[in-house]
Amino acid sequence: MTVEGPNGHPLLEVKRLKKYFPIRKGFMRREVGAVRAVDDVSFHIDRGETLSLVGESGCGKTTAARCILRANDPTDGQILFRPTEDQVFDVAQSTRRELRRLRRDMQLIFQDPFSSLNPRFTLLEIVGEPLLVNGMRSGRERQERVEELLRLVGMRPEYMRRFPHAFSGGQRQRIGIARALALNPRLVVADEPVSALDVSVQAQILNLLLELQQKLGLTYLFVAHDLSVVKHLSDRVAVMYVGRLVEMTDRERLFNSPRHPYTEALLSSVPEPDPRKRSQRIVLEGEVANPAAPPSGCYFHPRCRYAQDVCRTDTPVWEEVAEGHWVACHRVKELELAGVRDRLPMNTAAGTSTNPATNATPAAGSATDGDATANSE
Amino acid sequence: MAEDHTTRTIESTVAVGGAREEERISVATQWQLTWWRFRKHKVANIAAIVLITYYVVVLFADFFAYADPNLPAAKRGLLPPQPIHLFDDDGWNPHVLAFEGSRDPETFERVYEILGDQPISVQFFAQGLEYEILGIIPWDRHLIGVSDDAGGALAQEHVSLLGTDIQGRDMWSRIVFATRISMTIGLIAVAISQILGIVIGGVSGYFGGLIDTVIQRIIEIVRSIPQIPLLMGIAAAVPKDWTIEQIYFAITILLALILWTELARVVRGRFLSLREEDFVMAAELAGASRMRIILRHMVPSFLSHIIAATTLAIPTIIISETSLSFLGLGLRPPAISWGVLLQQAQNIQTLALSPWLLLPALPVIVAILAFNFLGDGLRDAADPYGT
Amino acid sequence: MATLAAGKRRPLLRVHNLKTYFFPDEGTVRAVDGASFEVCAGQTLGIVGESGCGKSVTARSILRIVEHPGEIVEGEIRYLHRTDGREVELDLAQISADGPEMRQIRGGEIAMIFQEPMTSFSPVHPIGSQIVEAIRLHSPLGKREARERAADLLRQVGISRAEARLDEYAYQLSGGLRQRAMIAMALSAEPRVLIADEPTTALDVTTQAQILDLLRQLQTDLGMAIILITHNLGVVAEMCDTVVVMYLGRVVEEGSVDAIFHNPKHPYTRLLLQSIPSLYSEARVPLPTISGAIPHPYNRPEGCPFHDRCPQFMPGTCDRHVPELQALDERESDQLVSCFLYHEPTDERA
Ligand SMILES: Nc1ncnc2c1ncn2[C@@H]1O[C@H](COP(=O)(O)OP(=O)(O)OP(=O)(O)O)[C@@H](O)[C@H]1O
Ligand SMILES: Nc1ncnc2c1ncn2[C@@H]1O[C@H](COP(=O)(O)OP(=O)(O)OP(=O)(O)O)[C@@H](O)[C@H]1O
Ligand code: SF4
Ligand code: SF4
Ligand SMILES: [Mg+2]
Ligand SMILES: [Mg+2]
Q: Taking CA atoms, what residue in B is nearest to A98?
């Protein structure tokens, strides 16, 4: 699949990316199997856009992001990165030397604002490190750039001599963002940058990310599991399930007219912060499949309410069902799925009854056999 | 994460002090924070003072001793401890009372009688045997000695603070010199073993793979050999005609070779876990070289642990040396160490009659406890929640 | 103090002006500083607020398991204790934490699901034996009957192969299953009040949906009162009847779920609600935020705890006086708010 972005080539093109972690056992550490953390994933990101990668815990989001930065070595596949229109690098094949050069153009924002800053460094050293190791030797120059960066992320430059322990989670996340921006990268990979933060702080960081994108023309690969946050931030969204992409399209289509049953279920599980919009949920039975021993056919079939025989035997293909709308499902042509706008209200007039919880919902019944497939280990 | 909690506690500890205090905290380095936490650890502080005292004694052993530790005096064998009396009938006049020895005609043992009417005045910083401070500056003053007024009488002929051994050598002075040997043999052996441990553990943890597996197997093999029999075997193989220096050196190396495995494991573990830390990955993504990552990010992160581990390793070595020498397999006379002294106290019969020969056990116990408390304190200060 | 509309029924648990402080060497942490709320059978009360605002400490205070150096320094925890078929009102804050009544109530009548899903089960015993132990603590059942009951409970919370699961260890279960097992253990004594402290925070949305459905269904079946502690406003909107909003150890607003979400009064509640993105809100526009950060627990502001971040801050009033939690007005008595925009200072501390 070659996809042309609106302005020529996409910034990043990931083709058939695979990352298997070997499972070793015994004294000789023999390889007895593999965790298919990322299993044949293809997507692209255009310049200046935000692509979000969503999915349940352990579905391989972080692994995919780390492969793109070559913090993990991919097992197979291509990662074509075009820092400028006429340059193209395959990150998957780059040498150490090439990587050092490439990484000026691709940076990472971490999830954990505590462990991602060296507690023994001052802010000046933390934010200045990328500058220093990439050749900005003059301390004076570095200090000026760090001041500028701190201001950019909304921190007072006077704090430069302080150590990270003096800052709250939200402030630390800002410092991490300043560090990621130090070298003027084109692509910023943000791995759950707000999930460790408190609700009120989350909003501040989301605003900052949006603002920086506008100011600096950044391209984001945003990894998250909170769909409300994803909806707020992205242009396009890719949904991942057990190492594979199941659906990818632009934000409005994904949230309003999803085409994959897993996306539908995911959307319906998000609790809405409005008691008047209490709705029936599609409660998925069981747990996410084990990536070391995934089910046959469509990985989602043990939990899919539309599954048919073909789903159990054949792997669905990843195809473009409409312009820019990619789905991997056998029944994509026939299914009518519900998006967030089509949520079914609860049986009662929601929110107005004194005790709506006592009115049993049909969905509640399905919880009773919650782990039908959970023992896939 | 754990580290963060601590700094938060510390932060809160000091935050009560107000804004200026907060400023101080904000710019405090990890070392300062560790130091502040350590300062709150009372027992460890006391232990540190005790150990400093020990090493002052080590450095200035000639000053603290007043007698030649190896000079036998046939007439002064097994003198009991001679307490210092601070007052006499006329008031302040520190003195000891002289003994007169004679041989019991029936048992042929030497018995001593206190001569109450022959006080020997003593004083601090008294003149005595000549020596060189730290081997350089000649001096002749000692912590305690016979009063200068006594006309040049030598302390070693009149005073025996902690008694004498069977050959009439002064126990106080022998313990002081034994401290010098026992406390330094530990340091040197620990230094060698820690260097081995850090290098081998670091290599193992950083490179991983086959090198790591091989090193891990070697460590397991070394650790599975029971220590005491091994020590005994090797020590027995040391030729009898080696000089003190040679034996000292051999024992040091031997102890180091056994001890490095412990630290190697710790260092490897820390390396492995640090390699996964986000901030290390951030440095890598920033384009930092391997050397920079190791030296600037990883090593400082566990330096405090190494210091604590080292402090805790010293007592092990001291005990090993003491036990070896006690069994007659380590240092041998005329070298003086705590173990050598205790070995001479082995004879039950002399013990019953001369219990002061057991006194060298006291500094051993105190030193071991102090090192352990200090090590615990350092470890808690560096990482109170453990890793 | 006005009572909530739900108070037409007799509330099962009434907390009034609860204050739980911690006294470490370094100073005093007013973790809970005057919390009041009540909950009736069959109802769900939500407690929301930012990290560190005292939600967990409130829960632990009710069960009298606040750890040293914490202490309940003031307030009442009135609970309708059922004994010999009668109901007597007990003040849990007054009775001994290790006394026979508290032991009967804790885990028996009031059960708790803890925040840390990993540490709630002992790693060295199978989950079955831990549930059996919990059952036998509050009932005279023998070993075998207790085991049968444990298997029943696991089935009740939707765990299949229940018999076999009894012999598994906590680490062998996935996050969702472990949380179900936690709930099964909490249900072992048929509690009348279930305190769920962030029961779904560590879980995925799909698993969260399973657990929330389960809780709702159990409430219908057993008529429990549930106190649901969370910082996820979506979960609150979906599950609760009444909501308590806490900030820095104090209740700032309290009311029916509809009032809190559609007619919030306290500036903090309003900002909190506006600052969360939702599936229906407009994408890629700046969100309103609360300026500043939560103050350090040792450095709480004088007066209204929210005053240094509040957009409606009134100098001279908000930083001098401490607002009380009061009914909005006489008619709308089910919404309580603690803010000088709605009432005058009453205290004399100037
Ligand atoms: N270094 C590793 N060795 C072996 N397996 C790994 C390794 N890293 C990740 N995995 C496995 O790969 C799968 C994907 O993990 P990954 O961290 O990418 O998931 P994720 O989608 O980021 O999940 P989360 O939302 O929990 O962060 C998981 O099953 C995980 O156990
Ligand atoms: N053992 C303790 N010693 C001292 N202070 C404590 C202790 N336990 C809790 N606190 C303090 O009490 C306050 C409230 O803590 P609590 O755990 O109730 O917060 P919470 O609202 O449950 O937050 P979270 O959402 O993070 O769970 C915090 O400021 C915390 O620092
Ligand atoms: S392929 Fe079948 S099982 Fe998979 S999502 Fe589509 S309908 Fe469901
Ligand atoms: S009392 Fe004042 S500062 Fe506090 S919330 Fe109300 S208006 Fe804001
Ligand atoms: Mg992840
Ligand atoms: Mg809590």
A: B287
